[in-house]
Structure formats: C-alpha cells, structure tokens
Amino acid sequence: MRITRPAAHARVPLDQIDLTDTGLYVNGDAHLVWQTLRAERPVFWQDRGNGDGFWAVTRRADVHRVLSDHETFSSEGGTAISMLDAPDPAAGLMMQSTDPPRHRKYREQVGRPFSARAVPAYTDFVRSFVKESIEPARDGEVWDVASSFVRLPMALCAMMMGLPEDDIDPLLRLAYASLAPDDPRYSTHGSTKPTAGSAHYEIMGYFAKCIWDRRRNPTDDLTSYLMSIEIAGRRLTDEELLYNCLSLLLGAVVTTSHVVSATIIVLAEEHGGEGFWPDAMRAQAAVEEALRWASPVTHFMRRARHDTTIAGQKIAAGEAVTAWIASANRDESTFERPYSLDLERTPNRHIVFGTGPHTCLGSHLARLMLRTSFEELCAAIESFELADKPVHLASNEIAGVVSLRLRTKFRP
Ligand code: HEM
C-alpha cells in the first residue's frame, strides 16, 4: 500500500470513498481517506451499491472497542470484507473465526509454540535466513529487497510446521493468491473469488496430505503438535486441523516482510530517494514504530451480535463492522505527529497486532523477525537508493510491497 502523509486539513468528499476498491491502496491515498473519516464520519456506512454495505470505524478508541468487545462483536460471521457475501465456513472450527469461550480453549493450546518463552528458540534460524537474504545485494546489482524478505516468514513457518524447503515458494504464492486475489501477480482466474477459493482449496489439500503422512510417521513439528492437542476433551477433527493449519499459514506469511519494505521506503523518502540506517533502528522502540508506520493488516471485521451503538451511531444486530487498524495507528488524538516516523516514539500505543481475545498469536515471532532483520541490515548496509518506484500489492486487506528495487552500498 502507498503510505502517504496527507496535509492536516486535507479531506476527500465522503461520497467518493470506496474502501473496498483495491486501487485505493495501490495508486490512491488511503491515509487521506481514513483521515477524512476520523474527522468527519468516524462510524461510516460504506455502501457497496447492491443495497448492502458495512460499517467502518477508523478512530483508535472505536477500533479498540470493536476488536476487544467480543460479547457485542462476533468473529463468527466473517473477519474481513472479502468475506461479506457468504457465511464463514470456518466459523467455530478455526481459532480466528471462533468466539470465546471456545476460542479461549483453542488459544491455550495452539498458543504454546508462539509464546514469548518459546519464540527465542527460533533466533538462529531467523538470523541465518536474514543473512542469506541480504547476500545477493553484495554483487552490486540492483537488489529487490521485497522479493528477498517476503520469503522469511514463509521459511520460518515451513521450518516450524515441518514442511519441505521446496514447498516454500509454491505455498507463498498460494497464500498471496488467497489474500490478495485482485493483484495481477496472483490472480489466476481473472477474477477475485475463484482465485481466492481455489488457493484456499489447494492449501487445505496440501495440509490434508501432511496430516495423512504424519498419521503414518509422527514427527515433532508444529503440524504433529496440532494433531495431538485436545480441546474440550477431544482431539481436533480433520476439518478443524485443516482450517487451523490454513489460518496459521496465512497469518504467518503475508504480513511481517512488508514492515521491512515500508521502513526502507520512508527512510529513503526522507532523504530524497537515498537512505541510510540510523543507529536507533537497532532498538525495540524502532521496531514498534516501524510496525505502526507499516500497519501491514489494514482491517479486520466483526458482526454485531445484537443492536448496539458506536460513538452514538446505531448498529443493528447482524450488521458487519470493519475496524481499520491502519487508520487507528495514525489517529491524531493518540499519536503526536502521526505521519512522522519517530524511531524513539514512547509511548507507542499502536494496535498493529489487534487487541482483545484474538490479538495476534504471532506477535513475538513477528517482532523477532523484524528486530533481527533490522540488526543485520544495519550491520551490512551503509546506505541505499531506490532504483525504481516501489510496486504495491493490490489488496484492501494487506498493506504490502511486491517489488522494492534498491542500489545498496555495503559497509567496508
Ligand atoms: C507484522 C506481522 C503481523 C501482523 C501485523 C499481524 C496482525 C494480526 C492481527 C491484527 C490479528 C487480529 C485478528 C482479529 O482480531 O481478528 C492477528 C491474529 C492472528 N495472527 Fe497475526 N499478524 C502478524 C504476524 C503473524 C505471524 C508471524 C503469525 C504466525 C503464527 C500470525 C498468526 C496469527 C493468528 C493465528 C491469528 C489469530 C489469533 C486468534 O484468533 O486468536 N500473525 N494478527
């Protein structure tokens, strides 16, 4: 997604806003749209032109409430605007599409390998993958940092789940086809629905085979672990296993690398296209600010369980409410100078990983990957220059960069 810095009083006409349009995130100015909504219509009805629509909340306080108040807002009626048109087949079967109290039971079990205590064990793997990813830049040619780093989360996920290295690239492609089906690089059927649907189907088919293999030859990876856990006194059914493997794969692979790309772009923009790594980049505060800046997940969605109000606006039972996290992370009532990258920002009350019961399961992993990436990039590269205009992912869900070609100068 293009990350812009709209002037404080700039606005767009409300009747021109279409939050579903993927073009808005590639060539348009989504930050200007969200700034307008925060100021003029913080609970906005997005008409889809078919007699249907959804609510969009853009202020941090409202986004926080929608994501955390699970008694009012359910995750079982679709969690993104791409899921508006049909019931969610994974409701109650996949952790992310399940409400408490059952969700809590999932989380206790599935969360163990992702805890703050468990994640440091992956540091060496991440560091050596990052070092290898930087290596091609040494030959002096133009280096596409977005293509190199997009493989890191997928490689880590494959290692944890015990998937062969040869499957990294095909799975990565399927994950993007599933979450960014409008993007011309991933669209396989010329239209959104078949692309996303068949990608889901292929990923689940892939995991069906993994599970079948492990039934015959148990292993000690995350896939076998999921097969062994018990929730409410029984093991997961095949359907539950497949949906949760799909959710882990999609959650893990399409977000983290875009934080690295978005940070490089802003550091270059601040210096007329040529950037360098400030010393502050190695600190945790900088990782948090890079996360806020990039906000790689634009929104999540909920359904109102009963009639309610948000900031005085009536919401009817069953209506869809989207919570725009990327807008909340620029809310001027929470963040001073929201459109400045301040690597020492404290406190930094971003909600990039969501909040409430579904707060990102992979936040410790994402932080590990980002901290290590910035450490190694700072250690190896003295300065960089944009060789081309960055190419952005066509998605209303993931704020992504698909190509970021750089000329780099290595440290002596
Ligand atoms: C910078 C990187 C990441 C961002 C910005 C991010 C963002 C989010 C957000 C906002 C949610 C909340 C969803 C909701 O409220 O419905 C979430 C949930 C989730 N994330 Fe992440 N995520 C990232 C990385 C990861 C990684 C590396 C994993 C790997 C396991 C992961 C796995 C998940 C899962 C499984 C959930 C569902 C949790 C639940 O329903 O309890 N994410 N993520």
TrEMBL record:
**GO annotation terms (biological process):** cholesterol catabolic process
Q: Which SUPFAM superfamilies match?
A: Cytochrome P450
Gene3D superfamilies named in the record: Cytochrome P450 (1.10.630.10)
Question: Care to name a GO molecular-function term for this sequence?
Answer: iron ion binding
Give the stretches traversing the membrane. none
Please give the Pfam families that the UniProt record associates with this protein.
Answer: p450 (PF00067)
Which InterPro entries did the record assign?
Cyt_P450 (IPR001128), Cyt_P450_B (IPR002397), Cyt_P450_CS (IPR017972), Cyt_P450_sf (IPR036396)
Q: Keyword annotations for this protein?
A: Heme, Iron, Metal-binding, Monooxygenase, Oxidoreductase
Q: Does the keyword Oxidoreductase apply?
A: yes
In terms of PANTHER family, this protein maps to: BIOTIN BIOSYNTHESIS CYTOCHROME P450 (PTHR46696:SF4), P450, PUTATIVE (EUROFUNG)-RELATED (PTHR46696)
Q: Which family does it belong to?
A: Belongs to the cytochrome P450 family.
| Name of the molecule in the record | Cytochrome P450
